[in-house]
């Protein structure tokens, strides 16, 4: 714990002004956090789990009807987890309780982040996107966490 003050030009957190990394006047109830990506995988490991996308400051589960292999390549790359091994549907990593993202994601594989992909509302209107249809993802980085 440490009191840290950054001005924005620092390349790492260590370059920010601080009272010292072992000196603090804060309790853990005042800890700060940072979101580095607008996607996350929940219920597995860092590189596997139920896919959620941050939209308007709300984490949303992704419907398996609106997600494909090209989209998976972008997510695995964004999370620095290698390549996709498998895209899973039917709530393979639990149903979760986040709102559902129902827009079709249309990545071209060259995007570095999922929010750079186009989205649209054109998917089969009869498809029911519920928590039973959350998409799960396994990336190659999953194997490396257990070695």
From TrEMBL:
It is found in: Secreted. It holds the Pfam family SRCR. Transmembrane segments: none annotated. Residues 1-37, 39-140 form the SRCR domain. Coiled coil: none annotated. Disulfide bonds join 6-16, 107-117. One of its GO terms (cellular component) is membrane. Its main location: secreted. This is Scavenger receptor cysteine-rich type 1 protein M130-like. It comes from Carassius auratus.
